[in-house]
Description:
It contains 16 helices and no strands. By secondary structure, the chain is an all-alpha fold.
Amino acid sequence: MLAYQWGVFAIALGTFGIGTTEFMPMGLLPVIADGVGASIPTAGLLISAYAIGVMFGAPLVTLFLSRYSHKTALLALMSVFVLGNVLSALAINYETLLFSRVITSLAHGAFFGIGAVVAMNLAPYHKKGSAVASIFLGLTIANIVGVPITTWLGQTFDWRVAFAITAVLGLVAILGISRSLPTMPPAEKVDVRSELNAIMQPAALRAFATTVMCASSMFTLYTYITPIMQTLAQASDNAVASMLMLTGIGFTLGNYISGKITDKSPNMALLVFLGLQILVLLMFRFSATSVIGAGITTLLWGTVIFGSGPPLQMQVMKIAEKAPGLASSINIGAFNLGNAVGAAVGGLVISIGFGYEWLPMFAALLSFFALLMVFFNSEK
Length: 380
């Protein structure tokens, strides 16, 4: 393995841990709620609090760490990640668990943002898109391996074990980063005004809005994927679990393929994957009417929906080239905002009388708006 690939792999270990800790509580929500004496809706706020922490923490933490070298910043962020998960494992009540989840969330956006910049700097010019995609690969593999394993451990033994194991993942990432990344000089003094101007330019704001819409499309469907599959394909619980696994595999395939296209043209990758998203989502209602059809559809959807991640990240770093780390971190926050918006849109669609089978259509509409935004940004 080439030297730069070891460094990228070490950062991907960190994103694997972050992806595991972000999505693992969703499968353990009833167990966690019972463990801290809270209702399930109240325990659900742990997920919302994490997303909010990522949104607000990403730019603030990135600016704070901008005075340090990128390697030091990544090690510090992984240390915060470990601390947050240890506190979660030791939480004695709901309030302390909520506090620990917010602490953990502060490492999320900044780690992805700074990690993407480091990966780009380490990789040769023709491999930069693949390097950024590799960072996201840790997140996709977390959905296939990390989340199912920690969820099983939490259900079988104790939910605190799941957080403890996740903390260990962070320690492994710290070891990998410290051993594989080269020594980096301290960052030059940051011109905060210049960085803020870079991320506030109209093209950058449109790029962030594109990310919000893409993520909203994803979570309008993904949040309610179980009842959608039960409605369209009459899928059993075991069949739904298999479809979720196929979705995670699709995430990984889309991330890999997108990295190759992004190496050549981030804009082309965005246009291709957003166009395919719309097509697959419009077909979803009709192609997912059997268990086999639903399995194939969720695999395709997972592939095209996650394929937009690497080019979106590359796009914002290119537009805000004077503040790539801050722009990259804010883009991760924008993804988490889209998470919340998508879940709310899906809930609204259902509450006003549309059935679950209509959610793919509304998700396609959000992807269409994202595609329009990319065209609009390309003309500027």
